[in-house]
From TrEMBL:
Transmembrane segments: none
Domain annotation Nudix hydrolase: ranges: 6-147
Keyword NAD in annotation: no
Lineage top rank: taxon: Bacteria
Cofactor: Mg(2+); Mn(2+)
PANTHER family per UniProt: ACYL-COENZYME A DIPHOSPHATASE NUDT19 (PTHR12318:SF0), TESTOSTERONE-REGULATED PROTEIN RP2 (PTHR12318)
Keywords, ordered alphabetically: Hydrolase, Magnesium, Manganese, Metal-binding
Protein name (record): Nudix hydrolase domain-containing protein
Example GO molecular function: hydrolase activity, acting on acid anhydrides, in phosphorus-containing anhydrides
Organism: Microbacterium hydrocarbonoxydans
Length: 198
């Protein structure tokens, strides 16, 4: 049985919409200070006391945190979040937070970004976002990169939502400059990053 470690928990929301060039995802760049400084990420944040309910599962607490943080950071009200993945950081990570990723169709796209949380934001296709990273223009962390990589395999928002629901768990291991999960190895020594079977 998979018994989670006692770690802080967070909820992240992967918001999708249909744009002029196909499926788009909302990404935002964090300020240089704090967690993920300067990186492009999805909206989300740590589970706070307000997100916890008696006899609630960790996933449901993280879901409520993701909904709350998405509204606080980009002003969008989200619902019907479907669990996509759970990420466990490696033991050597300086700040360890177990993070649940959820996916949802955006009910609107009128973003009102919180100035202290978001430097800039964009609706962009997953492939175009990965191109920005590959060119060295954007900083990303492996869970964001992996999620975008997976999204490139889907044709539209409905296909993503239909496939989600049975979340995948990623227990991260570091091997030199590579990030390793069961069956997968992400080489990050140089750009563009390369994913291969482990």
């Amino acid at each position: 049985m998979d018994v989670p470690e006692e770690l802080p928990v967070a909820g992240t929301v992967v918001l999708l919409r249909t744009g002029a060039h196909g499926m788009e995802v909302l990404l935002m760049r964090r300020p240089e200070r704090g967690s993920f400084g300067g990186a492009w990420v999805f909206p989300g944040g740590k589970v706070e006391d307000i997100d916890r309910m008696p006899d609630s599962s960790e996933a449901d607490d993280a879901r409520r945190a993701g909904i709350r943080e998405t509204f606080e950071e980009v002003g969008l009200v989200v619902s019907d979040l479907v669990a996509l993945s759970r990420w466990v950081p490696p033991p050597e990570a300086p700040r360890r937070i177990r993070t649940w990723f959820f996916v949802a169709r955006a009910a609107g796209d009128d973003v009102h970004a919180a100035a202290d949380e978001v430097v800039e934001h964009v609706w962009i296709t997953p492939a175009a976002a990965l191109d920005q990273h590959a060119a060295g223009a954007w900083t990303m962390f492996p869970p964001t990169w992996m999620t975008l990589h997976d999204l490139t395999t889907f044709g539209d928002v409905s296909a993503v939502l239909a496939a989600a629901g049975r979340h995948r768990s990623f227990a991260t291991r570091v091997d030199g400059t590579a990030f390793v999960w069961e069956g997968l190895r992400l080489e990050t020594r140089e750009l563009p990053w390369r994913l291969r079977a482990e």
